[in-house]
Amino acid sequence: MNRNLRSRALVRCALGAMLALLPPWAAAAQDYPDKARPVRIIVPSGAGSIVDLLARAQAKAMSEVAGINVVVENKPGAETIIGVQALMAAPPDGYTMLVTSSSSQSINPVMLPNLPYNPLEDYIPLEAISTSPLYMNLGASTRFGSAGDFIAAARASPGKYTCASATTATRLACAQLEGTTGIEMLNVPYRTSASALTAVASGEADVFFIDIGSARAFWQAGKMRPVAVTSSARAKALPQVPTLREQGAANYEFVAWFAAYFPARTPPQTVAKMREILQAAYATPGFVEALATYGHEPLQLAGADLLELNRKEIAKWSTLVKEGGIQVQ
């Protein structure tokens, strides 16, 4: 064997040895995605929540543009921690994804001091999905005609009225209302948004902050009504609903955002391919229509830009919690 042939043989052997040392998901990245394998989307909240609705719309759009099977798996509980940890425990092979909201990404780090994950380090930001304000909801049988009426009554009777919560985001929305108006409410935690919605609809709780997608069925059934929106200006989706700022809550603003993530250590080529799939999925007419139905605005951020949004949001909420004297767990 001449020197050139011997060198080529050595290179092939070296490459083969290197590939043998790679974990299986790294070696398979070049053939990603395998259409015979389903992609699993973990949702850290219950069925019917806005994160669940977005994930299911995304799954349908991903199947449409990439011809892959996508399944949604709900893992609610523990302030979204159960679902997030399920992503962290998954192999970084591109077949497990987390769709979540700013509740787990930027509010949990502020409201939960012993959080068992770091949203800036423990997984890979793929694509942002959308943004949405929340709506302050009162039960249909309430005597209050507006958010302003409720605020006045709560100010006159500290601790009498209850604000339901299902995540740190909805709890912070309650706390921010207290901080911007000087009222005192009793926070009542529920495991899922559906449970909190049912509580307000039945009169078990007085107030709940939630998005259009989650609350629409209750509004249509006449079981509750939105009396204020949490954005600084009225929302395009429901322009007839006034802001909390218009009704006595000075400087109140709360806008949630939603995004998709991969486990840490997912191969870069797999991340890049999934970003292509998601960008195409988010542009499909069906997904665009779903966002409009849920009262959401598209948010076009990915990778480092999405990570920077997350970092800024943590800083913003940390300042608000400290300056407002909001109690954390």
- Gap from first CA to last CA: 72 Å
Which structural class fits the helix and strand makeup?
alpha/beta
β-strand amount: 15-25%
Please, what is the CATH homologous superfamily of the largest domain? Bordetella uptake gene, domain 1
Shape: globular
- What can be said about the biggest beta sheet? 6 strands, mixed
Helix proportion range: 40-55%
CATH uppermost class of the largest domain: Alpha Beta
Protein name: Tripartite tricarboxylate transporter family receptor
Family: Belongs to the UPF0065 (bug) family.
Signal peptide: 1-28
InterPro entries: BUG, Bug_dom1
Describe the overall structure.
With 329 residues, the chain is of the alpha/beta class. It has 2 domains: 163 residues, Bordetella uptake gene, domain 1 (D-Maltodextrin-Binding Protein, domain 2), CATH 3.40.190; 94 residues, 3-Layer(aba) Sandwich (D-Maltodextrin-Binding Protein, domain 2). 45% of the residues lie in helices and 19% in strands. The chain has 12 helices and 11 strands. The strands form 2 sheets. Strands 2-1-3-10-4-11 form a 6-stranded mixed sheet, with helices on both faces. Strands 7-6-8-5-9 form a 5-stranded mixed sheet, with helices on both faces. Strand 6, helix 7 and strand 7 form a beta-alpha-beta unit. It is globular, with a radius of gyration of 23 Å. It starts with a helix and ends in a 5-residue tail after the last helix. The mean pLDDT is 91. Pfam families: TctC (PF03401). Belongs to the UPF0065 (bug) family.
